[in-house]
Amino acid sequence: MTNGQWVITKFTLNGSNITADFSPYKFQYYSNKTVDAIKNGSTEKTGNWDGNATDMTTWANFLNVSYPLNLINGTWHITNNSWTFVEASQTSGTDVKTLRLDKLP
């Protein structure tokens, strides 16, 4: 995760595809467990992240953010992954979210 930038190539909220709302963003994850949300080439917000390989979970937290970055916050269950992509899902209250992150070449 900490080598290169990542983009959201699929994001659904309660079955609706809202991927386009993330199109201006790239994400850079760092080994110190911070992550930059980069919008149109400039860091818009820095948050925190971590992962648990045993539980197949990852989480992110961006403080004081609005839509769509607020949708990334919370713990995600990793459903599929490789060195170049991560697919995950999250249920938060009545909201069901899925995402796919792909590493940029």
What does this structure look like?
The chain has 105 residues and is mainly β. It is 0% helix and 60% strand. It has no helices and nine strands. The protein has strands at 5-13, 16-17, 25-29, 34-39, 42-52, 57-61, 74-81, 85-92, 95-103. Strands 1-3-4-5-6-7-8-9 form an eight-stranded antiparallel beta barrel. It is globular and about 30 Å long. The model has no long low-confidence stretch (mean pLDDT 97).
List keywords for this structure.
105 residues, mainly beta, 8-stranded antiparallel beta barrel, 0% helix, 60% strand
Rounded to an integer in angstroms, the radius of gyration calculated over CA atoms is 13 Å
Order of SSEs, N→C?
Answer: EEEEEEEEE
Q: How are the strands of the biggest sheet laid out side by side? A: 1-3-4-5-6-7-8-9
* Structural class determined from secondary elements: mainly beta
Quote the average pLDDT.
97
Q: In terms of topology, how is this protein built?
A:
Blueprint: E1 5-13, E2 16-17, E3 25-29, E4 34-39, E5 42-52, E6 57-61, E7 74-81, E8 85-92, E9 95-103
How would you concisely characterize the structure shown here?
Helix content is 0%, strand content 60%. It has no helices and nine strands.
